[in-house]
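Bumping my old thread because nobody answered last time. Still need a sequence for this structure:
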């Protein structure tokens, strides 16, 4: 699939070179070279479309017998790719990124995570080195928990990596709360702490996230989050309540959950594929519905919206910041409209569920 008429398929090495040029900026490499590098990087992203779509088809089969399972498919925003490459203290290369194309499965329990992973391993090829990262059995220090698989899909003689995340609803609620907090406070809590240290309030907010993840791990009976080994739920709750940031943080989270998503507005015609199209500026969500048998049509429509969002026909420089009528689009599979809130391409619906869960602990 070619988005730019004057750009042919690019190699992994060429993509990495272009990514380095974009990070250096036009002021260092010249305007013409910079614009060419943007085109090459955009093309590399576009080449992940078909491999990611193939993975999504396999996922639909893998969850067909799992009640309440939700699947999503998306391409990483170009601006997000560039932000990752430019992240301080990291050495990411564009050609080596595993998550340009991504699929996600959200299920009810850790045992269902294992079930899905087993099916996927039987039906897809994976990286020779580090084909998976099981952050459920070995949670990160931040509290992040999810099972990542790195599929390798061949398309037109080239091999592309597609990241598949399989997680429980609790793990997903936690992850979207991290995104919400990052936006509320203008600080990236998804990334490791800054080498030069953080403000004390940011340190406390990270402690909040780690403690909540520890509670959720206890609830699900999975491996403890580092630093919470041997602690009971009451111990973790006491730790949470000792944080000076807690009250204001919960107020801010509840205020951010403006609940644009209203599944009752969708005709209850059962399950299927749902294209969720979100405009942040207008706080508007549109939903298009397709039968599972119409997967090709749904993917074609997703691709059309992707082109609008990324703004391939506009000035090359503006491509990095996105554009178009929608800010985000996600293709999702769900067995009924009510399940769609978990796949909502903004954090508000999941933050409501996150804060409601914490109410059960008196927080």
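Sorry it took so long. Here it is:
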């Amino acid at each position: 699939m070619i988005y730019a008429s004057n750009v042919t398929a690019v190699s992994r090495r060429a993509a990495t070179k272009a990514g380095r040029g974009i990070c250096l900026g036009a002021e260092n490499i010249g305007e013409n070279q910079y614009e060419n590098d943007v085109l090459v990087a955009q093309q590399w992203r576009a080449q992940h479309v078909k491999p990611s779509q193939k993975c999504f088809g396999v996922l639909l089969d893998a969850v067909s017998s799992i009640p309440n399972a939700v699947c999503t498919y998306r391409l990483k925003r170009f601006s997000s790719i560039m932000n990752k490459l430019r992240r301080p203290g990291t050495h990411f290369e564009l050609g080596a990124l595993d998550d340009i194309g991504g699929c996600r499965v959200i299920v009810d329990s850790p045992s269902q995570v294992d079930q899905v992973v087993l099916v996927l391993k039987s039906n897809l090829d994976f990286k020779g080195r580090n084909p998976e990262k099981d952050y459920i059995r070995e949670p990160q220090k931040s509290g992040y928990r999810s099972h990542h698989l790195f599929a390798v899909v061949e398309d037109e003689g080239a091999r592309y990596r597609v990241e598949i995340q399989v997680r429980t609803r609790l793990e997903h609620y936690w992850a979207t709360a991290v995104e919400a907090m990052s936006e509320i406070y203008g600080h990236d809590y998804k990334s490791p702490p800054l080498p030069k240290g953080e403000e004390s309030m940011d340190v406390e907010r990270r402690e909040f996230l780690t403690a909540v993840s520890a509670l959720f791990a206890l609830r699900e009976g999975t491996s403890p989050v580092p630093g919470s080994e041997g602690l009971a739920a009451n111990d973790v709750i006491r730790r949470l309540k000792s944080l000076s940031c807690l009250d204001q943080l919960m107020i801010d989270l509840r205020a951010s959950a403006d609940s644009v998503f209203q599944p009752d507005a969708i005709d209850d015609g059962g399950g299927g594929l749902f294209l969720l199209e979100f405009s942040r500026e207008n706080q508007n969500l549109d939903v298009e519905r397709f039968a599972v048998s119409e997967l090709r049509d749904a993917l074609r429509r997703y691709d059309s919206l992707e082109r609008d969002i990324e703004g391939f026909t506009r000035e090359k420089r503006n491509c990095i910041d996105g554009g178009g009528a929608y800010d985000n689009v996600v293709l999702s599979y769900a067995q009924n409209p009510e399940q769609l809130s978990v796949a909502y391409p903004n954090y508000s619906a999941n933050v409501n569920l996150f804060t409601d869960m914490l109410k059960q602990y008196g927080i």
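Residues 1-6, 312-324 have pLDDT under 50 and may be disordered. Let me know if any region looks off to you.
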